[in-house]
Amino acid sequence: MAEEERATSSDANQFTLRDLVTSDEVREIHLTIDKQWGPLQQSARQTAAIRALWGHVVKDPLADVLAGERLLQGMYEKMRRDRMSNAKEISGVMLAIRTLWFDARLEAAIEAFGGGHVQLVLLGAGMDARAYRLSYLKNTTIFELDFPDLLQLKSDLIKQAIASSDNQTGRLTVSSERLIHVPADLRKPNWLQMLTDSGFSPGTNTVWVLEGILYYLSHDDAMQVLETIGRALEKTAHTVLLADIMNKSAVSLSNDIYQFYSDWPDQLLPRFGFCNVKVSQIGDLDANFGLLTDPENLFERRRKIPRSVDIDPLDGSPCCRLYFVEATGSPLG
Q1: Which of 4, 49, 139, 287 sits CB 3.0–4.6 Å from 75 for a disulfide?
Q2: What Pfam families does the entry give (predicted)?
Q3: What percentage of residues in the chain have a pLDDT greater than 90?
């Protein structure tokens, strides 16, 4: 089969994989991942699979390679069934919107700094590929902090992509000024010191990104992460925090996987020195991106119910919410 016929597609009637994704080298790396990674690390591949299969709106040339064949096929089947049944929400739409929201707010934060060098810290970076896909990061230093084995296997996959025939034009290059991997465990309190040892400068404007990470942590560990960032505010020039946080009802759906929650992140973050906290929900004007076309979709209904209400009065189900949170901070508050 010709290479151009094997591009991953989100089309409901077609699903093919690039030769790179099915190559022996890439398959071997993902086999190692299947054997060694736990649920937290595996969630990074699931997110990459969604970016790949929502490629008509999320442009990520590495997503399919980082996801791997098995997760791509599994997610595709979920999306296909949703389309066949005329579901009001297609699988993966929530994470596609989440990706677009973080991309948009990150670009706005960098513009708001008014020029100059910016640090971007991706905590629990997972299979994030922003360093390769967002051109507006050219004046940034990106720190990707995550488990050592995850960063190593991710690097191995990216090396395969760069060396492949798909990349003959050299389009897979780091768009930021620098990309620095920081092998560290967020659950251990020394992660900020490890970040600093890797070149993080407290005096530089900084964007902290906590995408898809806080709710996997215990309450104590998540609070430790937020408190540590809060202490860094005392020395950092200007800071923007971007995070997604589940409410209690959402976490309760799977207590074996999800742990930390906050029903009121706009009240939580000021405790750590942040101000101007803005909370959005999927379906809001800044968190829609034209992907929720059915007016009766679940997200649209939930956002109209007051946040203080735990049970949906229409069907008696828990009001599960994923909050997108943006906050600012500076040494002067």
Answers
A1: 49
A2: LCM
A3: 80
Amino acid at residue number 306: P
Terminal CA-CA length for the chain:
59
Counting runs of H as helices and runs of E as strands, what totals does the chain give?
A: 12, 7
Q: How far apart are CA 37 and CA 232, in angstroms?
A: 31
Residue 124 in tokens: 């629990």
Cα gap 241→328, rounded to integer Å: 6
The tokens describing 77, both together, are 């089947």
Which helix (DSSP H) or strand (DSSP E) does residue 144 occupy? strand 140-146
- 255: helix, coil or strand? coil
Banded pLDDT at 285 (limits 50, 70, 90):
very high
Q: Which residues of 110-125 are buried (b: 16+ CB within 10 A; e: fewer)?
A: beebeeeebbbbbbbb
Give the closest residue to 116 by CA, choosing from 144, 143, 140: 140
Q: How far is CA 32 from the centre of its chain?
A: 23
DSSP label at residue 117: -
State pLDDT tens for residues 182-196. 999 999 999 999 999
Tell me the CB-side half-sphere exposure of residue 188, using CA atoms within 13 A.
Answer: 11
Instruction: Give, in words, the CATH class of 93-329.
Output: alpha beta
Distance of CA 177 to the CA centre of its chain: 21
pLDDT higher than 90, residue 287: yes
Spatial strand order in the sheet of 140-146: 178-183, 140-146, 118-123, 206-210, 239-246, 322-329, 275-281
- CATH 3.40.50.150, the chain: domain bounds: 93-329
In order, the DSSP letters of 45-84 are HHHHHHHHHTTTTS--TTHHHHH-HHHHHHHHHHHHHHHH
Task: Give the integer Cα–Cα distance in Å for 97 and 287.
Answer: 6
d(CA 101, CA 89): 18
**Tokens in use for 163?**
């060396």
Residues 6+ apart with CB under 8 A from 255: none
Q: Which tokens in the block code for residue 311?
A: 């049970």
